[in-house]
Structure formats: C-alpha cells, structure tokens
C-alpha cells in the first residue's frame, strides 16, 4: 500500500511537480484532467529543496516535471507529444508494477 497514491485498478501512478504560477503546469494539469486521471500535484514553488529533488529525479530544470509510474516523462510539451502520438493513454493505463519501493 502506498501513502502517496492509491491506484484503483488499472491506472498509472502519476505525479506532477509544478508551481501554481506556471502556464505550462496549468496546461499539463488540464491535459491530465481531460484524461480523468488522478495525480499527485506536488508544489515545488516555495520549496527550493524539493525543486532540487525534482531536478535530480527528472533530469529537468523546468516545471512541470511529470512522472508516470515513477518514470520521468518530461514536461508539458512531452506529454502533449505523447498524446499526439497516441502513447499517453497507454502509459496512463499501465498500472505501476510492484516496485518494492524506492
Ligand atoms: N517545454 C517545457 C517548458 C516549461 C517551462 O518553461 N517552464 C517554466 C515555468 S512556466 C520554467 O520552469 N522556467 C524556468 C524556471 O522557472 O526556472 C514544458 O513544456 O514543460
């Protein structure tokens, strides 16, 4: 059982690291919302240490950074490209394998 996400059945674990004042974050949230997917919205706007953690995990320096099943998939442009390629739904439908925790 996870404290961060409670996956119901067949959906992926999704995390969005972002801020409240970022247009790309808003666009990413809109896209995820349009998919009806639950995600953890982690505000790094007032927490430089958390932002550094995000950068280390993702390898990206901008917000948002999105993770699907703990894999960094990039920012808004990246999930929009996945959507255009018809790949986003597949990723979102993939349930997180039991990772044993990281
Ligand atoms: N291509 C990126 C662009 C993201 C981006 O430029 N985000 C801005 C905030 S809206 C950012 O992080 N700028 C650098 C910074 O704030 O340090 C995406 O689609 O996510």
Distance between the termini: 13 Å
> Count of helical segments?
4
How many strands appear in the DSSP assignment?
Answer: 4
Tell the overall outline. globular
The tally of domains stands at 1
Main beta-sheet annotation = 4 strands, mixed
Helix content: 25-40%
Assembly state of the chains shown: single chain
Rg over CA atoms: 13 Å
Q: The CATH topology is what? A: Glutaredoxin
Question: Can you give a write-up of this model?
Answer:
The chain has 102 residues and is an alpha+beta fold. The protein has one domain (2-92): Glutaredoxin (3-Layer(aba) Sandwich), CATH 3.40.30.10. Helix content is 36%, strand content 17%. It contains 4 helices and 4 strands. It has helices at residues 23-34, 48-58, 76-84, 88-92; strands spanning 14-18, 40-43, 65-68, 71-74. The chain has a 4-stranded mixed sheet with strand order 2-1-3-4, sandwiched between helices. Helix 1 (23-34) links the parallel strand 1 (14-18) and strand 2 (40-43). Helix 1 runs parallel beside helix 3. The longest helix has 12 residues, at 23-34. It is globular. Mean pLDDT is 90; it is low at 1-9. Glutathione is lined by residues 22-24, 62-64, 75-77.
Overview features:
single chain, 102 residues, alpha+beta, Glutaredoxin, four-stranded mixed sheet, binds glutathione
Topology:
Layout: E1 14-18, H1 23-34, E2 40-43, H2 48-58, E3 65-68, E4 71-74, H3 76-84, H4 88-92
Parallel strand pairs: 1-2
Antiparallel strand pairs: 1-3, 3-4
Helix pairs in contact: 1-3
Brief digest:
The chain is α+β, with helices and mostly antiparallel strands and 102 residues long. It is built from four helices and four strands.
